[in-house]
Give the backbone structure.
Amino acid sequence: MANSPSAKKRAIQAEKRRSHNASLRSMVRTYIKNVVKALNAKDLEKAKTAYVAAVPVIDRMADKGIIHKNKAARHKSRLNAHIKALGEAAAA
């Protein structure tokens, strides 16, 4: 446990930031799950709208450092590839 006043303050700030960052990470996961649910339901329009809503959230969290930029790019790329594959399967 922290003993000095400055260490106590830092511990309080760290806990506040940790809980805030956890809620932001949870929000990103929720947006990603919405796209995945639409893909699993084979609903192309719903998947596209969920993806359009998820992209700015993913980018914003990458800019804030909540998730790594490469992880954000990987999520966007994979989700987009799944949507594209679903669209091609529907067209065929």
Q: What stands out?
A: The first helix runs from residue 5 to 40.
